[in-house]
């Protein structure tokens, strides 16, 4: 699976497999994280979990999973495939050998480039996922109530004007394709990239704090530098890297989630969203969902890296 120029397709395939496994593991907590960050009046993480379960049943935690399962697999395929090939290209350019271990600066450069590439594909995916996660009859009712009480400093989730016509059925979008179509009709192509600026602020440093801790920890846990890392080491390093990356990315992730949930354009942009959120709810709002991100980041990333590495070993016969 390698071209004459050293480009490897197996990294993309392994990333696709890892992405699918991580979605199944992490989507329930991702739903909780999205609800907390969008500002629906939940007191804390436990209150959010119990409210969703009592009002909407356990299946609500998997709301909108079909689209991430189909799309984030492709997204992770691009992220891991691009990072691995970028890393080899940098090593080949600097050291004359693509297999030469990269320095911290090399890994940072490859991670930064990966973060930029990820936004182009990931912004529409995240937008549709969040819109699907946010739509419920209960939330529509609460949204109307909270909008009338903006003095309380609680952000309502703004939904498209078409929400009123479908509120009786408790659904705004019939599915991912209908969601995309509705966004294109009401907001245009630019609507699919709402929150992309905040996503750049999240993903560029976020991927550096994702791949670097993983690679450092894997090397530290490797008993012999010439040996392959043990699956338990991969799982642990991947989990720690995921928690570190997601916790540090939480402020930008909060802004991104609010912009993407705001179909009626209450926020004019990243700066306005930051200022409005700060003035209404204080600095603590930017760390809303941090605990969920820390918990969610571990199993998702541990599963992602382990499945990715094991898939590569299978493909390469190691």
Can you offer a commentary on this structure?
The chain is mostly helical. The chain has one domain: Mitochondrial carrier fold. 70% of the residues lie in helices and 0% in strands. It is built from eleven helices and no strands. The protein has helices at residues 10-38, 45-56, 66-95, 104-134, 137-147, 163-166, 176-187, 196-220, 231-261, 270-281, 290-316. The longest helix is centred in the middle third of the chain and has 31 residues, at 104-134. This is Solute carrier family 25 member 48.
Count helical runs: 11
Unreliable spans: 137-170
Q: Remind me, CATH topology? A: Mitochondrial carrier fold
Number of E-state strands: 0
Gross CATH architecture:
Alpha/alpha barrel
| Structural domains: how many | 1
In CATH, the homologous superfamily goes by the name Mitochondrial carrier domain
Spell the H/E element sequence.
HHHHHHHHHHH
Rg, Cα atoms, Å = 20 Å
Alpha-beta classification: mainly alpha
The geometry reads as globular
Mean pLDDT figure: 82
State the name of the first-level CATH class.
Mainly Alpha
Largest sheet geometry = none
Helix content: over 70%
Termini separation:
14 Å
Strand content: under 5%
């Amino acid at each position: 699976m390698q071209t004459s120029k050293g480009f490897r397709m197996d990294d993309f395939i392994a990333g696709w497999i890892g992405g699918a496994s991580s979605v199944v593991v992490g989507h329930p907590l991702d739903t909780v994280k999205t609800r907390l960050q969008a500002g629906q009046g939940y007191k804390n993480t436990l209150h959010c979990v119990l409210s969703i379960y009592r009002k909407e049943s356990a299946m609500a935690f998997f709301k909108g999973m079909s689209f991430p399962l189909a799309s984030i697999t492709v997204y992770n395929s691009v992220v891991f495939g691009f990072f691995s090939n970028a890393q080899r290209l940098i090593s080949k350019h600097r050291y004359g050998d693509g297999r030469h271990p990269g320095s911290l600066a090399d890994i940072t450069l490859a991670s930064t480039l990966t973060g930029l590439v990820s936004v182009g594909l990931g912004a529409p995916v995240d937008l549709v996922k969040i819109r699907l996660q946010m739509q419920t009859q209960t939330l529509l009712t609460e949204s109307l109530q909270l909008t009338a009480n903006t003095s309380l400093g609680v952000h309502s989730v703004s939904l498209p004007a078409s929400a009123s016509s479908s509120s009786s059925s408790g659904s705004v979008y019939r599915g991912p394709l209908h969601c995309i179509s509705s966004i294109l009709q009401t907001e245009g192509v630019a609507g699919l990239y709402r929150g992309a600026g905040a996503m750049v602020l999240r993903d560029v440093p976020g991927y550096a704090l994702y791949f670097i801790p993983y690679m450092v920890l894997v090397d530290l846990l490797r008993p012999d530098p010439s040996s392959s890392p043990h699956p338990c080491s991969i799982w642990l390093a991947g989990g720690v890297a995921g928690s570190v990356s997601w916790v540090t990315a939480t402020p930008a992730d909060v802004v991104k989630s609010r912009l993407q949930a705001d179909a009626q354009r209450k926020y004019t942009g990243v700066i306005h969203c930051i200022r409005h959120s700060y003035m209404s709810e204080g600095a603590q709002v930017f760390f809303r969902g941090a605990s969920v991100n820390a918990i969610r980041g571990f199993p998702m990333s541990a599963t992602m890296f382990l499945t990715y590495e094991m898939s590569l070993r299978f493909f390469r016969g190691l």
